[in-house]
Amino acid sequence: MKSIYLAGGCFWGVQAYFDLIDGVTNTKVGYCQGDVENPTYEQVCSGKTNHAEAIWLEYNDKLISLEKILEKYFKIINPYSLNKQGNDIGTQYRVGIYWEEEEDFKIVQNFLEKKQKDSSQKIVVENQKVKNFFDAEEYHQSYLEKNPFGYCHIDLSLAYQED
């Protein structure tokens, strides 16, 4: 199993979307890249902790590649929008790909470079080694499963589209 961390705005929808993808074996929502140990949701929303709302995603790389995960990720984010996805605005809603292993850095870098070559707009997706990841509060975990009519800026039907 391999893992990657993805920030794509509100983490509820990002988690719900990736939970539908074949080859993804586990997800958790949380906060990463920040300056405060184990922050609360309220602290993160203040904009003072520098955390991004993100998901930890575990996947079986024999069933789905990191490149395929990144293609799926790009279906649900606006890669040109700085600190805003859907109706959510603030640094915690930035877009980013955070990795643990150096080999993943090159895969992410190559992917982003290819996407940038195909676009006249500047892509603002962060590509960084994960600095930290703290699980979000329990009520955020699988939120849209528990609250099917909860707010989500992501069209979950995109999980079923062929690439």
UniProtKB/TrEMBL annotation:
* Entries under PANTHER family matching the protein: MITOCHONDRIAL PEPTIDE METHIONINE SULFOXIDE REDUCTASE (PTHR42799)
A biological-process GO annotation: cellular response to oxidative stress
The UniProt keyword set, sorted, is: Oxidoreductase
Q: What is its EC number?
A: 1.8.4.11
Tell me a Gene Ontology molecular-function term this record carries: L-methionine:thioredoxin-disulfide S-oxidoreductase activity
State any GO CC term.
Answer: cytoplasm
One Pfam family in the UniProt entry: PMSR
What is the originating organism of this protein? Spiroplasma cantharicola
Gene symbol of the encoding locus: msrAB
| Protein name, per record | Peptide methionine sulfoxide reductase MsrA
